[in-house]
Amino acid sequence: MSYRPIRKAVFPVAGLGTRFLPATKSVPKELLPVVDRPLIQYAVDEAREAGIEQMIFVTGRGKGAIEDYFDMAYEAEATQRERGKDLSALEGTRLSPGNAVFLRQQEPLGLGHAIWCARDIVGDEPFAILLPDEFMKGAPGRGCLKQMVEAYDKVGGNLVCALEVPMADTPSYGVIDPGARDGALTEVKGLVEKPAPGTAPSNLILPGRYILQPEVMKILETQEKGAGGEIQLTDAMASMIGSQPFHGVTFDGRRFDCGSKAGYIEANLALALDREDLGDHIREFALAELGVSGIAAAA
Ligand code: UTP
């Protein structure tokens, strides 16, 4: 059976990034670099690899730098060219004309509300959502959204990325009430946003990658505020379960929560250690910094 292709992706980038203040006072969280590429670039690369054609950014006040980032960098490009310097660092940073849409969420009323703001651009087709502060590191050519699109081609309907975390961490996330598991696919029987400690239906959380049917927009239109007084995407998705297929996909790769300081630093270290130009230097530094006893303690 063939399902309607996933051609559009929504990137909600209107949040205030308060956990990174003061860095995010004037720089959008989504432009914070992991080594030398901004978080949003990794998410866009991941979407492109999964076959996404149209990138829809839901931005807000103070986020104009994101739009500029994906434009032509005239001065930098011209200067580098004049100096005979390599321009490969800028590869993939310019989006094709007409393939990027920027719209505004005037108030950060929640992730569900941010997605709803994109309803007219998404239209009547299934679409992907990528939260750029969740950095999903797959093997080359095996990004998280690509793995999800492959699963979608088999089962259709709605899919969320599913990630196991320690039970104690579940109150910070949307959590899956899981049904039968078949390989990387888990049936989703229910979803709950930020469950109270000790009440989560499992330790499978939603780390910010979704493929959803357009009907979710209709639900979001009348969605009441949920956890934290915000309009929650999880609540809207939960009310689709039963009327449409719903699955979790276990990502074969590593996830870094770059919305938190610890996750952001871990992502920088992991990526730097993997890089040919930096790996040895960072390894040496870490070894010297931790010392032999520190490493033994960390192991
Ligand atoms: P987060 O809650 O992680 O981001 O939302 P935040 O609110 O910016 O960060 P903190 O907690 O204050 O540090 C996840 C994603 O959803 C977007 C954010 O930009 C982020 O990419 N978001 C969240 C919106 O676009 N609008 C909202 O109303 C809320």
Blueprint (SSEs and pairs):
Elements: E1 8-12, E2 33-34, E3 37-38, H1 39-49, E4 54-59, H2 64-69, H3 74-82, E5 100-104, H4 111-116, H5 119-122, E6 127-130, E7 134-138, H6 144-155, E8 158-164, E9 174-182, E10 185-193, E11 204-205, E12 209-212, H7 215-221, H8 233-238, E13 246-250, E14 253-257, H9 261-274, H10 279-298
Parallel strand pairs: 1-4, 1-6, 4-5, 8-13
Antiparallel strand pairs: 2-3, 6-12, 7-14, 8-11, 8-12, 9-10, 10-13
Helix pairs in contact: 9-10
Considering DSSP H and I runs of 4 or more, what fraction of the residues is helical? Answer: 25-40%
Multimeric state of these chains?
A: single chain
Would you report the number of β strands?
Answer: 14
Structural class: alpha/beta
CATH superfamily of the largest domain: Spore Coat Polysaccharide Biosynthesis Protein SpsA, Chain A
What is the number of domains? 2
Largest sheet: 10 strands, mixed
N/C terminus separation: 47 Å
The geometry reads as globular
Order of helices and strands: EEEHEHHEHHEEHEEEEEHHEEHH
- Separate helix tally: 10
What does this structure look like?
The chain has 299 residues and is an alpha/beta fold. The chain folds into two domains: 8-259, Spore Coat Polysaccharide Biosynthesis Protein SpsA, Chain A (Alpha-Beta Complex); 261-299, no CATH class. Helices cover 32% and strands 23% of the residues. It is built from ten helices and 14 strands. The chain has helices at 39-49, 64-69, 74-82, 111-116, 119-122, 144-155, 215-221, 233-238, 261-274, 279-298, and strands spanning 8-12, 33-34, 37-38, 54-59, 100-104, 127-130, 134-138, 158-164, 174-182, 185-193, 204-205, 209-212, 246-250, 253-257. The strands form three sheets. Strands 1, 4, 5, 6, 8, 9, 10, 11, 12 and 13 form a ten-stranded mixed sheet that branches. Helix 9 (261-274) packs across helix 10 (279-298). The mean pLDDT is 94. Uridine 5'-triphosphate (UTP) binds at residues 12-19, 29, 58, 105, 108-111, 113-114, 131-133, 259.
